[in-house]
Design a protein that fits this description.
mainly alpha; 481 residues; 77% helix; Growth Hormone, Chain: A; globular
Length: 481
């Protein structure tokens, strides 16, 4: 049977379609196979390894590595002028995916009887190894969105499908892990976490390979070596600081992760000691993801009609309302209270879903904004700095939350047997963290991010006109020669 001919667009590339969306979704699924266990890290290091407040201190310390790691690797990618068979971003992703097979497991080496100093070394070394490989894969992966297509609707589709990949990548461990890594008394079995991390690293590698093989690069940003200006890291960072859409999108992303990661430990304790049903936590959180699944297919049409900024700001208001309701409603430690929690999480998830489905497209537009204002794209640096602040929130959020939890009476050694007073404190801490998260999203999206639908159309038209003018100039110069 003859192969079906590949449909090409006006520039000779494979026409954008579902293959691109599935490939890009697979990339974030691969990232989340490594990243999803980070929500278990605080429980592992406090309840199983017994570090308690030491963990909070160490988590902040390793963010210093993040401060060096993300912008450094991003700038290295931007300044890399070597010729690759397909694309330098895909080459870096391939290298990162190899390391992530074992990188995530390095964070969960089970040694509960080791001295405190040894545990600290194990944590720092494991985190540094994992973070380095994760950045090598994740920074170029995020930058790819702006190279796969320059059309707003296509980017909205890619962003929405990235959210699908992230969602499924979170759902699989979210539902299955509580049944695997906890015993009947709601206590963590640390050795199982290590082997689960190895398995997830291998699954992530398979997903990355699928993405690499099925990604079509349509926006050529390669610079000829003879014409390449010397890359200036400090100038690129200065450009990021002046990039208002990038700052706004970064504030919103930090807010999202303060809620997701900062509240994750408190949510675990909520189900362990307040609802006393840790096995239900994954199923409840899975159920709360329904609005994201429902909204994702509608994202492309909604973006075309309303605009990304307008849509995402509306979503942050939903999340803020859900947090307030969760705080004030009578969420009792029984099935009735759990139902209230689920309803509030459904509303919160709708807001998060609206934002998350367009968040990456908004960063793609922020990269274009950098080119619009400075004449330089600097994808790697823009995305790396965005990734740095996201990961800063992912680290500092849980650390600060854990400090607050300890101040409210949480004792890691008690595992799933916290007092009811402590459990009740968690019941109020969770919506407080979600509320702070939603407020940050609203400020970043509604007040700072300035690429509304009208401005975005103007920017896209001017960038397209500049590219056409450059092509005409190149053509005329060739004719003169």
């Amino acid at each position: 049977m003859a192969k079906k001919p590949v449909r090409l667009d006006e520039n000779g590339y494979r026409k954008f379609g579902m293959r691109d969306c599935l490939a890009y979704a697979a990339g974030d699924f691969g990232c989340n196979m490594s990243f999803a266990l980070k929500g278990t890290m605080a429980i592992f290091w406090t309840q199983f390894m017994g570090l308690d407040l030491w963990y909070s201190l160490l988590l902040i310390v390793v963010q210093v590595w993040d401060a060096i790691n993300d912008p450094l690797i991003g700038s290295l990618i931007d300044s890399d002028r070597r010729k690759y068979k397909r694309n330098k971003f895909l080459a870096y992703i391939w290298a990162g995916s190899i390391g992530l097979i074992v990188g995530g497991a390095c964070c969960f080496i089970p040694a509960p009887n080791a001295p405190v100093w040894a545990k600290m070394i194990i944590f720092i070394a494991g985190y540094v190894i994992w973070d380095a490989f994760y950045t090598v894969a994740n920074v170029p992966y995020g930058s790819l969105l702006s190279l796969i297509s320059n059309k707003p609707a296509d980017r909205a589709s890619l962003s929405a499908w990235r959210s699908v990949g992230s969602l499924v990548g979170n759902m699989v461990p979210m539902v299955l892990l509580p049944f695997i890594i906890y015993d009947d008394a709601n206590n963590l079995i640390g050795e199982r976490v290590f082997f689960a991390a190895l398995l997830m690293g291998f699954l992530g590698f398979i997903c990355f390979q699928f993405m690499i093989r099925n990604t079509e690069i349509r926006e050529d940003t390669e610079v000829k070596l003879d014409d390449a200006p010397k890359f200036n890291v400090m100038q690129a960072m200065g450009n990021f600081a002046k990039n208002r859409p990038a700052i706004g999108a970064t504030l919103a992303a930090m807010g999202m992760f303060v809620g997701m990661q900062g509240a994750s430990t408190a949510v675990t304790v909520l189900f362990q000691s307040y609802f006393k049903n840790i096995d239900a936590s994954g199923v409840v959180q899975l159920f709360a993801m329904i609005p994201i699944v429902v909204f994702t297919p509608l994202a492309r049409k909604c973006v075309v009609k309303f605009g990304k900024k307008e849509l995402a700001t509306f979503g942050s208001i939903f999340s803020l309302i859900a947090s307030i309701l969760m705080f004030v409603l009578p969420m009792t430690p029984d099935n009735k209270g759990m139902i209230i929690y689920v309803i509030c999480q459904l509303i919160n998830s709708l807001g998060m879903g609206i934002y998350s489905t367009v968040s990456w497209a908004m960063m793609g537009d922020a990269i274009d904004y950098n080119e619009w204002k400075t004449g330089k794209r600097e994808e790697g640096t823009v995305y790396a700095l965005h990734s740095f602040f996201r990961k800063l929130a992912q680290g500092v959020g849980p650390a600060v939350a854990l400090v607050i939890m300890v101040a409210l009476g949480y004792v890691g050694a008690n595992e799933g047997n916290q007092t009811m007073e402590v459990a009740t404190n968690m019941r109020y801490l969770v919506p407080a963290l979600y509320g702070f998260s939603a407020l940050m999203q609203f400020v970043g999206l509604g007040l700072v991010y300035n690429l509304d639908k009208k401005t975005l159309a103007k920017m896209s038209a001017e960038l397209k006109r500049d590219v056409t003018a450059d092509d005409d100039l190149t053509y005329r110069t060739a004719e003169d020669d």
